[in-house]
């Protein structure tokens, strides 16, 4: 392969130097992009126990009371896993400072947990990043159950 | 606490699985290493954890993975030393302008395209704890890497090492890897600056001083290994142990300075003497245990961290496909365009692009570092692992289609005859 000095310089300019300048431009404008807030890590949940009692699956709700959970975040998407709980991991979405998670109940042992049907829970919470440590507050509710009251909860992010 | 039973069980399972899958892949014309990478993924949550969670939890309980990781990292440290050892900067110099252009374009093209993709992916797959610059640079470095060892193995298996395609490919892959690791060092430095306890100036100054000591001090000392090898035709166990010790000390220095263990061992490898027979001898001494035992553990550990299940829904799979397309377009397309521009026939240029597009194990090493320093998220890690597998898997069949064996047979025979004349003083006619 023979490449003269002039050809080499032209090719290098077009194929290397100009793209590098483009990269510099991308890096500069990319700094203005806003990524979803970071929520990954361990959280400690404090649920309002009395308000859970009337829920049809109070037993399963109880397993989520005062329990730690871990969030593994991938941008707008995250997986939430409760520690020491029969509740399987759930996936959710973050929009601004609001997170929404649908928590499926395990198909086995629903009766033991006090569940009458194949309900799933919704967790909707608002994040507070000004608080130290970061916290979230929201509601746990049963999907497709208008009669079921919601349970308030608060969670604090462990440092 | 270390549960020896669990650890030995894990090693046995990983070893058996990687040998079986590796052999199956060999039968379908893929390098064994590709099968071993797949075996690692199969042992993780993407397959075993999904279909037999109890078995997965029994063999790979989360509390035990630290030991498996430690063992696999020792393997990767030695492997990176061997990769550095195989890299010879003179190979690039001997190729002239064309190889310089091809190697630089094969870095800049995927790098720039990856940064454009990062522009799209950052608000979707990253979070506010990661600066955009680190995210984009990491994506660029991860996409511009070439699996130097896999590439060398493919070329050797196809008897193409001495062909024009082979020599340019090896030189470009070497440059790509050195550049990729330098960029990665910068990113790790940038991300870890606040966590190491050292001021950034200390780290930068320390790294420059360390590199100078290695290049102008240690490099002179390690030349004695080659002198000793030339005199006796072998190295003593003490010499080999000292070599390993130097690689480990170098790794510890870079870790202490705030970058990563692997940079130190890689640098140690690059400053080692480059005489071919010596390099082959040292590689043979260390390679067996690293390749057959320790690297499969690394693949398994990577597989345990890879959860293809995190790539959920059409939107996530679209990101994954975009990553594969951009990686392939940048690397294959960029290398092909530059080598064609340099005067290589279009078919050979396409073959070179295909070779450069193989990422293999080097990609997994980089991705694990990215996940460790949290510059990429678990879902993006899984997508990038899928990209590494796809681009490595496609190399051999694509290369066979573009540049069939017969295309290089005459060139290989000619090159072998020349070697015989040069080294053995044989008659070129073969009489």
Low-pLDDT regions of chain A:
none
Largest sheet of chain B at a glance?
A: none
* Count of discrete alpha- or pi-helical segments spanning 4 or more residues of chain A: 3
Helicity of chain B, as a percent range = over 70%
Share of residues in helices of chain A: 10-25%
What is the H-and-E element order of chain A?
HEHHEEEEEEE
Structural class per helix/strand content of chain B? mainly alpha
On the 0 to 100 scale, the average pLDDT of chain B is 87
Classify the oligomer: heterodimer
Instruction: Give the distance, in angstroms, between the N- and C-terminal Cα atoms of chain A.
Output: 59 Å
Sheet/helix structural class of chain A: alpha+beta
Shape of chain B: globular
How far from one another are the termini of chain B? Answer: 68 Å
Can you give a write-up of this model?
The complex is a heterodimer of chains A (159) and B (431). Helix content of chain A is 23%, strand content 36%. Chain A is built from 3 helices and 8 strands, in the order H-E-H-H-E-E-E-E-E-E-E. Chain A has an 8-stranded antiparallel barrel with strand order 1-2-3-4-5-6-7-8. In chain A, a hairpin with a 6-residue loop joins strand 6 (120-128) and strand 7 (135-142). Helices cover 80% and strands 0% of the residues of chain B. In chain B, helix 7 (96-125) crosses helix 10 (164-192), helix 7 (96-125) packs antiparallel against helix 15 (313-341) and helix 8 (132-144) packs antiparallel against helix 10 (164-192). Chain B is globular. Chain B starts with a helix and ends in a 7-residue tail after the last helix. Classes of the chains: A alpha+beta (159), B mainly alpha (431). The A-B interface holds A 1-3, 5, 8, 11-12, 15-16, 19-20, 22-23, 26-27, 29-31, 33-40, 72-77, 79, 91 and B 96-101, 104-105, 108-109, 111-112, 115-116, 118-119, 121-133, 136-137, 140, 164, 168, 310, 312, 316, 334, 337-339, 341-344, 377-380.
